[in-house]
Amino acid sequence: MASLVQEDGSDDVMVVLTCIDRNEQDDFSHNQDEDAVMISTVDVYNWNFPSILKHTTIKVKAQRNRLIEHSSYFHGLLGGNFGNPDLEILVQWNQPTFLSLLASLFGSPVDVTSESFLSLFEGALYFGMEMIISKCMMWLTKAISVNGVPLLQLNDLLSIWEFGSELVNNYLPELCTTYLAKNFIWAMSCSSFVDVPYDLLLSSTKHPNLTVDSEMQLCDALLIWISANKEQYTEDCYINLLKQIRVTLLPLWFASGKKTYQSLSMCCNESYSGVITLLKQPFTMDPLQDNELLNLRIRLTELTQRVDVSCCTQMNPAILLLSVLPFSLNLEPQLRIKFEKSLINHETINAFPWTKWSNLTFEAVYEINLSNCPMLPLKVAIEIISYSFPSLRKLKAANHLSFKTLDVMQLVKKCPLLCDIDLTVDVSPVIPTQVSILSSFLSTSILRSSSIYWHNNPSNITKLILEGRNDIQDFDLRAISNICVSISYISLRGCTSVSDVGISALISKCLKLNSIVACDTSFGQNSVLALCSLNASYDHHPSVKHSGRNIPHGCNLQMLHIGGCKGINLSCFSKLMSQAYMLKNLCLRDTEVVDDVLFNFLGSSLEVLDVSNTKVSSAVLAHIIGRNPGLKCLKTRGCNNNKFLHHESKNLFFEVVRSCKLEEISVGWGFSYLSLQNLKPSLSSLKEIEVGLGGSLGQDGLKWLPVISPLLESVVLYFQVISDDIIINMLESLKHLKSFSLCHCLGEISSLGFKVRMPNLRKMRLERVAPWMNNVDLVNLTHNCANLIELSLLGCPLLNSESQKIISSGWPGLISIHLEECGEITKNGVVSLFDCCALEDILLRHNGSGIQKGFIHEAVTKLPMLRKISLDVCDAKDRDKDFDIPEVDNRHFLSHVKIARCKSHTHRCIFDPQHVRASTVSIHRETLVLVWDSKHLTTTLVKERV
């Protein structure tokens, strides 16, 4: 209702607007309204919305002229010669929204948010309030342009898109599409992502500003959406969506594993065909059509922060260069010639005319993952990324063997902001402290005279991972210490060519170093003394209070991993432990550490403790756990002195239960069902458990494990008594389980225990527990565990050559397969396993003497990602019982080859299927190990079987 009045002192006529909620009855009568409130726009700043909205009827005195001026709706009602004060106009609308609209018209700031946008915009459209429409659109435009945390929530976005889709010639759908495309990574993490309408999702995936870290990320999101909407749309709709994926840029293992998805099978086959084509012939632009060029380009937008092309087999310099160039198919002839030369000859990439375009840089990119890209020389890639990603801070480039230590300095010179580098390679299976070396020699060697090639300008590097790089030597560490003056984290795990002196020199010079990973190296007495001296050198700094004690400012060691290091003097190490108050992560596995050493540790910040295979006892663990309530990971497997039984363990249980919430635990000797019950309060958030030799959970413990720890993602059980019922209960209950291993377990186990669907399971290891497994059981396993990427079977004598085909067709995306003593799988050679084209790690031992002499060369040719092969001469088909080793230039991605030999290597080992458990490692005489790095091939003969 509206009536005309005039307030004292005002030249403008005041209109009384009566508003009820839009859901009220149309026959509303003002005279019957007993719950009304009167307010005025004159004091709009004093409106108390919560109080006003308690009334069912709201009357608003508003200035007539302002309503006419800013609302086409009220202009039509109140304009012209309107002057009848008795005319009733009923305004039915959402009361909070209508009040907000009126308040905005009369000067009060409008509060546009993700939740209020649609209601305000819809109301402003209905009442013709252009000013508010403009404010809403300004907010929406700003929300779309903001980088970082999205201002518009996904549920609200969907409502806006749906509303805009019903309007004619409206730009809301386009804005929503742009918003979803730019914030796709965030959107796919929202629970309401599966509610995105098909048309909006399709238009977003086609949008040039679609921002994702990788094609795999996009593919996963679309498959989740399709799975949730499989009953609502047609197969053609799903195929149209999946066509937007640039399948050539999918990781090979991922694409291969998706062959079981009907809608993706054709795409996956296309991806593999593209890989083979690119592997066999150089990349040229001539035969490629427009859409093929588009599908080769990495998605890069102004909002892209991370680029992940790891395990993208076909990634090469050409594709990387093409991705950063403007998408113009009409390249100038001279530029085309330069481009094609850069594809054929990587050295010419330096001469590429980068300055021709100003938009070749992507400022937002700070992280790139180029790991496991066998066709992409990292040194060449650096030339491209240094021009295109000037803000790069983090580089992951695992398994690039050709990238030498010398090249690291060129990398930090070209990417000055780089602070985090990961150059991990596979750790050599030959660790001097773990095996008996009979002989070793280098077949080739590229020696460097000194470190004068390394520039001396300080870098911004704070984290450097060189895991497994045997080509790292002491003078490399000296060069690193010269230029990485700010380094705080270094990983040298498995770097067997560096000495204790070299590590200690690095520690002494890098004063900010607080995290050291040096497992399986020569870290020893000198390095411990260097850490102690580093602390002592800070004694002149002001001390700080910690747990009521004054400690030197320099005691900032936070992570120390020295597992497998044998040259440690316990007296010196005990002193170091007494200084390391700030330690958060400590790994001492396979060392000679004893209780007295750890009793000196008085820190209270420890989160990870690994003392596996040491002589520590429950007493010292209780001491440490009691002082460190934030402990999340505890590994004690193989500790003979650590008995989780009787009175000595009660203190340990009490301390753990009282103070810790463990996420990972590894136990062994003395651990029982009673231990599990005592630890129950601290295991509710457990994600990984490993029970080794000497531990016995029993039927009751295994039964209650899923109840006590429902979030488990990894379960590894050694030497446990187990049954089908227990396995079924565990696999059905643990919905988050990704890795499941049963090793040398006893009990009544059959195929019935594995007839449970486990779509989330990625890794399975069955060692000496499935002698009953035949091809039918294997087929059932492929159906129930369809998404495995790692499979290990030991002691399955009923399998045969047909098992290969079952494995390759059931798990085409496998990256690791270990088959040992599995009947006659390789009796007729190895053919079908090559269909698992993404394999990175193969172990075939004692499965039938049918493997050809040239198997290794054939494997590296057909499996572009293959890095590790383990064989046994017993399985060689030829009379000389030998395998050809590929030349350096023909080994592709291969880095490790292990060939074991038994006592009598001229004859096939005899295994009795009825007594497979009797076979032990003692029958093996030696192992030939070949390891390639960036400098040479090392051939080692090891006494043990590795």
Automatic annotation (TrEMBL):
GO terms for cellular component: SCF ubiquitin ligase complex. One of its GO terms (biological process) is SCF-dependent proteasomal ubiquitin-dependent protein catabolic process. Pathway: Protein modification; protein ubiquitination. Residues 157-256 form the BACK domain. It comes from the Eukaryota. InterPro entries: BACK, BTB/POZ_dom, Leu-rich_rpt_Cys-con_subtyp, LRR_dom_sf, SKP1/BTB/POZ_sf. It holds the Pfam family BTB. May act as a substrate-specific adapter of an E3 ubiquitin-protein ligase complex (CUL3-RBX1-BTB) which mediates the ubiquitination and subsequent proteasomal degradation of target proteins. This is BACK domain-containing protein.
